[in-house]
Specification:
Length: 171
C-alpha cells in the first residue's frame, strides 16, 4: 500500500517574501502618516502660540488706549511682542538672538524687529519669496482708520496685528 507523503509544515520562500513585502508597505504608510501628524501638531502649536501673542498685543494696545496713551502705540511695532503675554513666555521661546537658534523655537530678531519661528518639520510648508526656507517671520503692524475731526481728517489706531513678512501655507 502506498502511503501519502506527509505535508511539509511552514512557509514557502515565496510566501515569506510576500509577507515581508506587505509588512514593509504597511510600515512605510504608517511612518508617512506619523510624520504628517507630527508636522500638523507642530503647525497647531505654532498657530496657538501666535494666537496668544496676538491676544497679548491687543490687550496691551487696549490698555494704552484706555490710559489715553495712544501716541505710544507706535512703540509696539519695534518691541518684542512676547513680552506682552500675561501667562509668561512660551517654553520654546529663546529671547532675542543674533544667530539662528534650535529648530522648533521662537526668537526675536532685534535687528529686523521681527518675531521668528524656526520650523522643525517643514516638509509640507511652502514659504513665498527668498531667504531661509525654515523660518516663519512675523512683524507687528498697527491698524489705523481715518477719523473726521473738527480740524480735518486724522488717522487713529484701531487695532494691532502680527503679520507674516512672507506669505506661507501648510499643505
Amino acid at each position: 500500500m502506498i502511503r501519502p507523503r506527509p505535508r511539509a509544515r511552514g512557509f514557502t520562500l515565496f510566501e515569506l517574501v510576500v509577507v515581508i513585502l506587505v509588512f514593509s508597505v504597511l510600515v512605510a504608510v504608517l511612518l508617512e502618516r506619523l510624520l504628517y501628524l507630527h508636522e500638523m501638531a507642530e503647525k497647531a502649536a505654532m498657530e496657538s502660540t501666535l494666537s496668544g501673542i496676538k491676544t497679548g498685543l491687543q490687550v496691551r494696545l487696549a490698555e494704552m488706549i484706555i490710559a489715553n496713551r495712544e501716541a505710544e502705540a507706535k512703540t509696539l511695532e519695534s518691541q518684542d511682542p512676547v513680552r506682552w503675554l500675561d501667562e509668561g513666555k512660551p517654553s520654546n521661546y529663546g529671547g532675542e538672538y543674533g544667530e539662528q537658534p534650535v529648530a522648533g523655537t521662537w526668537y526675536f530678531d532685534g535687528r529686523e524687529r521681527e518675531l521668528v519661528y524656526v520650523v522643525n518639520t517643514g516638509g509640507r510648508l511652502e514659504i513665498d519669496g527668498q531667504g531661509a526656507q525654515n523660518e516663519l517671520r512675523f512683524r507687528v503692524r498697527l491698524l489705523t482708520s481715518p477719523v473726521q475731526l473738527p480740524g480735518g481728517a486724522d488717522q487713529r489706531t484701531s487695532g494691532v496685528g502680527l503679520a507674516p513678512v512672507r506669505p506661507y501655507r501648510w499643505r
